Amino acid sequence: MKLIYQYAWMVPLFPLVSSTLTGLGLFIFPAATKNLRRLYASISTFLLSIAMSISLYIFWRQIGGDPIYRYLWSWIYNESVALEMGYLIDPLASIMLVLITTVGVMVMIYSGSYMSHDQGYLRFFAYLSLFNAFMLGLVLSPNLMQTYVFWELVGMCSYLLIGFWFTRARAAHACQKAFITNRVGDFGLLLGVLGLFWATGSFEFEDLSVRLNELLTDRGVSLFFATSCAILLFSGSVAKSAQFPLHVWLPDAMEGPTPISALIHAATMVAAGIYLVARMFPLFEALPFMMSLISWVGGVTALLGATIAPAQRDLKRVLAYSTMSQLGYMVLALGVGSYRAAMFHLITHAYSKALLFLGSGSVIHSVEPVAGYCPDRSQDMALMGGLRKCMPITGTAFFLGTLSLCGIPPFACFWSKDEILDDGWLSRPILGWMAWCTAGLTGFYMFRMYLLTFEGYYRANAFGPMPPASVWEETRYRASGQAGFAGWPTGWRGYTAAESSVDRCSGSARSGSGEGWGHTAATHPSAGEHYKPLLCPKESDDAMLFSLVVLMIPTSLVGFIGVPFPIGWGTGFIDPPSCWLDLLLNHPRGILQQDWSELLLNATTSVAIALSGILVAFIFYGPILHPRLPRIDPELEGILGYFSSSLYDWSYFRGYVDRYYNLVFGEGARILAKVASIFDDWVIDGMVNGVGILGMFGGEALRYAGGGRISHYLFGLVLGTLILLLIVTVGYEYNCSI
User: Fold this and answer.
1) Is residue 427 assigned to a domain?
2) DSSP annotation string for 346-367
3) Sign of CA dihedral 398, 618, 560, 336
4) Are 259 and 361 in contact (CB under 8 A)?
5) Residues of 569-585 as b/e, b for ≥16 C-beta within 10 angstroms?
6) N or C: which end of the chain has fewer CB within 10 A?
7) Is 613 part of any domain?
8) What is the pLDDT of residues 39-79, one digit of tens each?
9) 648 and 480 in contact (C-beta within 8 Å)?
10) Does residue 177 contact residue 252 with C-beta atoms inside 8 Å?
11) pTM, full prediction
12) Total of domains in the chain
């Protein structure tokens, strides 16, 4: 066995060491550590780069056909329980190691510039390294118990990172929401782990599926119990990967710094749920109801995320719902048994979405000095536009990521998404329809986001009447007697360059002339007298652009590892990339066997659907300002307006899922608390207080009854004795009569 496998445990150790050094420095020598913050950040990036190098070499060895390597040592051992710890190197683990470390290094390089002016710069890098360490430990875990330990540690780090700006109320609420929602799924995961251990007596991945299949065959355990344990196990993945109905935490998690969104919501934390389902795939595959449930959860989540994203104005929230939808694709593929397509899409989506998130961070970072340091302004696409001219590299990177996510060839996500659409149709036609609708909506909302952000003209400092940017929204508001931009009512106006010098969230004054900001003046070409020279954001610095340029490479090329080359193209020295993917994912039917004509037919259909969504986005949000819709029959216009308004409200209010949860769980918890408070005050405390009051009145009565004269005491004693004798006599006579 290669020496590299014996030291694979060092992969999570390197980021753990950097996090420990940074944390100890902040605790013991805070002033000196802050003065050397660039050095600490460089050390963190360097150590994670070493882990990345080891991961890439392990990945290469797995491609070369090395066997699975497992190293275990006893943790707890007695007659009833045997717990072991260690690490497992197999193709799935090697893929996850490469994804986590490569995206993690790019995020760290990017963060060195993005977070440079933040007071919590070193704290951010300490959290980031700690998160990477625990995530790497999770994918190397050889059994369910160790996986659960790292699963919870990853959840703790996500809580710290999402709530990094905890002094902001929305960030504090977002991290609490993410933590509580994930605890619901994690509690189910723990019950599922314990249930499977009770049934099989093992936590090992391979032993679990083998022993459970034997028990089901020999009727040693009921199918209902096995399915229940599998559902509980799957609930952890539902929460972690933001699947319906535990998806509500993901959009609010955008309150954290943008580099965190790129890392957590592209290649690591949300991918952990997909990883767990893939790791337990042999167990789930033996339970037909479980596979059906997984596919339906994935299909509903994919379609729900795609229907909510089109009306969102926050740049990062659109990407959050896009992530939710694409994760639904992966879960759907796993549910229909397409293990290879799911993991292939996990790879392609990770790099494409990391590029998009870092691109959005570049936009926000450049827009903030002009639009204001408030997320409601710096992340609002209604106040952007024309940024491709000011930020050409960011615009190009964002455009490539958008094309990839829409499934346009030859970019990465095209090859993986096409397989999922095909396998969905082969499994159940209704799932195929849901996947197709999701593909069309993805093309629409992704290009809506790109067009509103990078095309047209910059709107943050414009003043005067805002022209409608969408025929759809104009129809919606015309029905209610309004017309506005992206949901703004009539009469809304932007801010002049002088007005934009005041931060709308903090009120801090800034130079209205733009001097010192490095921004250039621009004028809308057809502005006329309503528009004056504007301030345009500038391109981000080199460190941030370096990460974008590097991520453009896998976004454009990584999909070719699944390209179906004809049989015989391989040589004796190296196989085609698609052979590597089939080898790594242990796929029984390699894509090399697929017919090119079948591939082209499926690709033509999927690309046509994506292009139709893109065309609709161009019609509604294209850079050319379209004239108002012609007047039609008032009754028909009212029907269309009502229909458009209903669709818009469904999308804008997130499918009403958050409202339902607030009503059922939020208000329900408050009502329950009030009832419990009333019961406690009047029943529990009433009983205790009643005993006290009775004692008090009894004492007062005895105090007045006692006058201090012995004759009164003797009279009371004689009277009590006579009453007692009378009671005893009556009772004796009654018993004798019976």
Assistant:
1) yes
2) HHHHHHHHHHHHHHHHHHHHHH
3) positive
4) yes
5) eeeeeebbbbbbbbbbb
6) C
7) yes
8) 999 999 999 999 999 999 999 888 877 888 888 888 777 77
9) no
10) yes
11) 0.83
12) 2
